Structure formats: C-alpha cells, structure tokens
Amino acid sequence: MMLLPVCGSSVCGKDFRHSLKKPSPNYPYGYKTKKPRVVPAFTIQALQKNTRVVPPPKCGVYDPLPSRPTMFRKCYQRGEFPVSIEFTNIGKRLAWKVPIEKLDFHHYLPMFFDGLAEGSYPFNFIVEQGIHDLVTKGSYKVLPVVPQLIIPIKNALATKRPTVLCHVLKCIQMLVTGCDRVGEALVPYYRQILPTLNLFKDRNRNMGSGIDHTTTRGENVADLIEDTLQILERYGGPDAFINIKYMVPTYESCVQN
Questions:
Q1: Does residue 23 have a cis bond before it (omega within 30 degrees)?
Q2: CA–CA separation, 138 vs 190, rounded Å?
Q3: Environment class of residue 125 by beta-carbon count within 10 Å: exposed (0-12), middle (13-18) or buried (19+)?
Q4: How far is CA 254 from the centre of its chain?
Q5: 139-183: per-residue pLDDT in tens?
Q6: What share of the chain is helix, strand, coil (3-state, %, to 5)?
Q7: Cα separation of 124 and 85, whole Å?
Q8: With 0-12 CB in 10 A as exposed, 13-18 as middle and 19+ as buried, what is 211?
Q9: What stretch of H or E contains 57?
Q10: Which residue, 205, 238, 244, is CA-closest to 221?
Q11: What are the angstrom distances between the C-alpha of 106 and each of 17, 83, 132, 170, 200?
Q12: Cα–Cα distances in angstroms (integers) from residue 175 to residues 9, 88, 135, 195, 204, in the given order
C-alpha cells in the first residue's frame, strides 16, 4: 500500500509555493505586453490600438539628382568638337580649330548647352568657355537657335545641383544680354525655364552672424536667380513681367517700381 504525502509536509508545501510563481491565465497583469505594430501614416490602421505610425517619407524636392553622362560628354570624347584646352601664361583658354563664324550653330550651340548639366572638369570649363565664345563672336546667329536651347536648359536646371544652377544662370544672362532679341524670344518658354527658379528663389542659407562668401564669388543661387529674372524682364519686352509674375509669384518688378 503506497502512502500519499500529507498536505502539511515539505513536499506539498514546495509544490504549492512553486505554483504561486506562475500567473493565472485569467490574471491580465501576468502577460507581457506586445510590441506595437508599425503601420503607415494616413491609414485606418493608424487609428487602431497598440500601433506605431511611421511618418511619410520626405518629398525631396530640393535634393539634387545624380549626375549622368550627357550627349556633350560622349561627343567630346569621340573628338567631334573642334576645340582643345590651351594653357598660356595668363591661364587656360579654348583653342578653336575652325573660325567660330563658320560653325553650324544649329548643331554646336545646343550641344554646348546640353553640357551644362556636367559638373566635373574639364567638361564644365569647356562648356562655359565655349558658350561664351559662341555668343560673343557669333551673336547674330543665336536667335534662330533659341528653340533648340530650351530642352537642354530645362534638363540642366532639373539637376538642382548648385554649381550647375550657377553655370546655367550665368549662361542665360550672357545669352540675353549679348544677343539681340533673344530676351523676347525666351518669353514663350518661361513655363519650361522658370519653375526651378521659383523653387530656389528664396532659398538662402541662414548664416546667423557669419558671412556667406558665395555671395561675393557669384555662387549664391538665390542672388543669381534674382539677377536673372531682372535681366529677363528688362530685355523681354512689355510682356515679360506678367509672364514672370505668373511663374514666380514672389517676384517684384525692377522696371515698374
């Protein structure tokens, strides 16, 4: 005959004390809290309990686009441009193998403007200096080529890289001030050119008590945009201001005021 342990014995007491450590299934505080679920914002799940809402991603409207090889770079590497960099005692300059007056501006000028999206040497130097030479020495041949320059200018502005924006704005100023009636010819294309300028017009860096040296070097994008818009208004004729105001609402006239 086997004897059962009495409730007051040490064995029964040990089992009883051990059972007290285990929480009852009906006791809510014995369970561990579940980790909150990660749910997207602006959904019905965000209203549920025990959830953690992830904020929506940033739009990145000011983020620069990655650099891509342009058609200008491919043509230059194939040796299709009659130019070379010449080092002199006063610095670097472009040496043209053909007189600029004999060049086909319908082919070369849009190609140089396509290279404005380049931000590395020697392509940026060749593009900026090449546009300067073509505009100054062949200004009378630029006006018929203006429609072919709009898409390269728009693509270069769409990169949103500060150095590229500065080069594009300087070339636009050079184009408008150095060639007759080009400012008026650009008025119908403000819808393609001015949206990026409206985006960066008031984007100045707050330096506090410091000094922003980009303004003295002509590398401040916001200042260059303001100067470019004023030049477009002065050289664009009577319809220039109303079209600029439509695309850049914060712009104030420099002629009428």
A1: no
A2: 24
A3: middle
A4: 27
A5: 888 899 999 999 999 999 999 888 899 999 999 999 999 888 899
A6: 50, 10, 40
A7: 12
A8: exposed
A9: none
A10: 205
A11: 96, 17, 16, 21, 31
A12: 105, 27, 7, 19, 25
Concatenate the DSSP letters of all residues of 132-187 into one string.
Answer: HHHHHHSGGGTGGGHHHHHHHHHHHHHT--HHHHHHHHHHHHHHHHHSTTHHHHTG
In sequence order, what are the beta bridge partners of 88? 91
The pLDDT tens digits of the residues spanning 200-254 come to: 888 765 444 444 445 444 568 888 999 999 999 999 888 899 999 999 998 888 7
The tokens for 157 are 């502005």
The model's pTM: 0.74
CB 176 within 8 A of CB 226: no
**Residue 19 class from Cβ within 10 Å (0-12 exposed, 13-18 middle, 19+ buried)?**
exposed
Q: DSSP character for 39?
A: E
The token pair at 197 is: 């300028």
